[in-house]
Amino acid sequence: MSARSDKVSSQSLSHEYRLIRSRRRTLALVVTSDGELQVRAPMRATQEQIRQMLAKHDGWIRRKKAEQASRRPAPVTFAEGETFPVNGQWLPLQFGNTGRATVVARDDALIVARRLHASPEKIESALLLFYKKTTLERMNAHVSELRRQTGLHVSKVGVTMARRRWGSCSSRSSLNFSYRLAMVPDFVQRYLAVHEMAHLRHPNHSPAFWAQVAEWMSEFRLAEKWLKNEGARLPL
Ligand SMILES: [Zn+2]
């Protein structure tokens, strides 16, 4: 996307920003979910134009940064009682008996093997593995159901460790989903399956693509909204 990208500190205001020049026609400001301010600028935009843009939108930038900061998850400590989401439910972490597994989700708690108690690193990798496995199970179930419904061929369902990309669809009709989908509610998981399956017919986000999504899941906008509002709050 970017032709040139570099970090610049603006002198007159306290905003540090990344300048991304491209063939676009107008200047635009973006605050990413990490709280980074980006100035997207045409190739020829001058420093003065950028300075003016920043000055004019100073209030908006501050508001947006504060908003993004409040959406970011609190740092995770893996202490007992700390909550983690499973299928949209936030469950308190508990150390206990998990049998052969290292993590087991119950209705009222997320049980982590007692022997991991003192090692946050081991708890973290056990949780990641749990999320990965659970995501694979959940998404396999959603995709199988859609396959029956639509007759579409899917060669493989996989799970990636991507944090930002919820799903993807390859030209060889394999679907990949982020391990974090085990954290989101069932209807959001289903939406991601619908979304990627619709890409098997339309490898783009054209109106025809969205019509297909709506045909398979009329309330898909609720899921999009959930991801937008809650997605950045998810831990790990
Ligand atoms: Zn898409």
UniProtKB/TrEMBL annotation:
Pfam families: YgjP-like. InterPro entries: UTP_pyrophosphatase-like, YgjP-like_metallopeptidase. Gene3D superfamilies: Metalloproteases ('zincins'), catalytic domain. Residues 25-229 form the YgjP-like metallopeptidase domain. CDD domains: M48_yhfN_like (cd07344). This is YgjP-like metallopeptidase domain-containing protein.
